[in-house]
Amino acid sequence: MKKILLIIIIVFNSYSFAQTFGFGCLGLSGVYAGVSEYRYDVKGINDYLSKEKLSETENLKFNKGTGYRIGANLFRAKWEGFFISAKGYYQFIKEEIISRNSLTKLNEVYQTNKNFQLNLNNWGIGIDFGTPIFKFLDFKILEGHVSYYTPELNIEYYENNNFISADKFEPEKMKITYFVGSGLILHLVQGYFSIEGTAGYNFLNIEKLKNQSNIFIGDANNNSIKNAGWSYTLQINVGFPF
What we know:
The chain contains two helices and eleven strands; from the N terminus they run H-E-H-E-E-E-E-E-E-E-E-E-E. By secondary structure, it is mainly β. Strands 1-2-3-4-5-7-8-11 form an eight-stranded antiparallel β-barrel. Strand 3 and strand 4 form a beta hairpin.
């Protein structure tokens, strides 16, 4: 045991001498904001939309959500030849679809709309590991997140632009999900301002959604959300080195 502890101390000290931290022992910190796009597989929800549509000629399908991400780079520690970062964020993702139809009642024409909105908002924490390619460009070899999703399917019904009713479907149970990806960081002002791009895959599977009337979307053979799929994020980082 003493030999193992001695080896750990020697290795730690050797890394400590090679570090180039800018914030005491934590390195760079800062905040960021960006835009994201998610391409997902929600077959159970899409099957439900096909039954709820107002017109037989419509082809309603959720497949791509967009939104915003805000977060904080908790630290970025740099050694010679590589770096490691930790971050936290909250993300707003949504996609909207409108189903339209015209009805004739007592010789009057009514325009009816059903507005469907799928929200895949999530928050998470993550780390990335990478290496500099040039002085102004870093390659994120691997980035991993642990995420918590709060998905919702909201449905609103209108007649002649007048609100009639609304419904909301949510998961019965929530669970932790994961993201694995990679990306690039372009340093415009070293340590203070950079642009970061990330692409990766989100592992998310939710069997059922339900509303307050205990109506379900999805089942064991046809999950409401099969996976959150591929996502792409472009963000601006503002750093605070000390």
